[in-house]
Amino acid sequence: MADAVLFEFLHTEMVAELWAQGPDPGPGVSAGPRRVGGGSEGRDEKGRKMNLSVLEGMGFRVGQALGERLPQETLAFREELDVLRFLCRDLWVAVFQKQMDGQRTHHQGTYVLQDSSFPLLVPMASGLQYLEEAPKFLAFTCGLLRGTLSTLGIESSVTASTAALPTCKFQVVIQQP
Amino acid sequence: MAVCVAVIAKENYPLYIRSTPTENELKFHYMVHTSLDVVDEKVSAMGKALVDQRELYLGLLYPTEDYKVYGYVTNSKVKFVMVVDSSNTALRDNEIRSMFRKLHNSYTDVMCNPFYNPGDRIQSSGNLGISLSCRAFDTMVTSMMIQVC
Question: Region entry Disordered: which residue ranges (chain A) (predicted)?
């Protein structure tokens, strides 16, 4: 079944395309250098940060639509934990064809979702190689989680971290109103 | 046969509201507005009752002498309210449920349209991108108002 890899290829290209629009346009990109002001280091930093938030924004919009479509047949969610369980099971299965491995709750509305073999990181490496490249491959998924939570009525902020590829942890902090 | 169909966002403002006899539209707007209280009541009642089944379809919200009002809540707290004519006694619960399911499907399609910003009104504006799936939504609601489906 080639279905799973289609999204992986698309995601890889998305990251490559949006990342390359830094001060140093990569091959096949027609964007000019970004003029954010300051020295070249300042431009580099700001350009990179903006790219990550663009990726995250894309994930957010996709998450909003998925948050509407996926729970269509399920019954109404009664509490936060139901929603988190939905994320780990149904959302992950729909997007990555596997369930999330672990979910831990800290107090004050912080959840840590752990995936020991995250499908978008698996093709890259196993271990400590490319650790500094990992964040940009996780930005879209952070936005995805945030968007789905937002449609289901939970405002949150999601960050991701990797200790060793392909394990990664998503930290969901729920904003209290 | 629906006389009025409304889609209400989770912040309780209308995303879409349309009624067939176009005169006296205000009456239907008021009916939908008052039904929001009933919807909230039913949702909180469902939350307190320790029932395993938690349905999206809320059923008959309240009857008036001419009309009956039905409600449905999605998981994203978007409410659908439908007003039907009381004289049309042939309408069974199943048919209302299927009408709501169609509404939910069309609403999901509008949400998945990349040119639609969540929270905007669902209307066919001059912009071609938005109006395509909103037109489909409009057409679907029109078909619900002309005949029972």
Answer: 21-48
Is the Cβ–Cβ distance between A44 and A22 less than 8 Å? yes
Q: Is A12 part of any domain?
A: no
Helices A3-20 and A40-69, axial angle in degrees (round to 10): 150
Q: How many domains does chain A have?
A: 1
Q: pLDDT tens, B65-96? A: 888 889 998 888 899 998 888 776 667 888 88
CATH code, A164: 3.30.1380.20
Which pLDDT does position A142 carry in this prediction? Answer: 93
Contacts of B53 in chain A (CB under 8 A): 75
Cross-chain Cβ contact A68/B108 below 8 Å: yes
| Structural domain boundaries enclosing A163 | 52-174
Contact B124, B115 (CB under 8 A): no
- Could you give the C-alpha distances from B7 to A23, B24, B69, B104, B145, in angstroms and in order? 46, 19, 13, 10, 15
Considering only residues B59 and A24, tell me which one the structure prediction assigns the higher pLDDT: B59
Do A76 and B76 lie within an 8 Å CB cutoff? no
Q: Looking at the domain assignment, is residue A129 inside a domain?
A: yes
In this predicted structure, which of A34-43, A125-134, B9-18, B123-132 has the lowest mean pLDDT?
A34-43
User: Which pLDDT score is estimated for B136?
Assistant: 83
3 state DSSP class of B83: strand
What is the nearest CA distance from A155 to chain B, expressed in angstroms? 12
Does the CA dihedral A58-A62-A67-A68 come out positive or negative?
A: positive
Tell me the domains of chain B and their CATH numbers.
2-144 (3.30.450.70)
Specify the 3-state DSSP secondary structure of A1. coil
Global pTM value: 0.81
Query: Using one digit for the tens of pLDDT, what is the confidence trace for B90-102?
Result: 678 888 888 888 9
Q: Chain B partners of A151 at a C-beta cutoff of 8 Å? A: 76, 118
A27: in domain: no
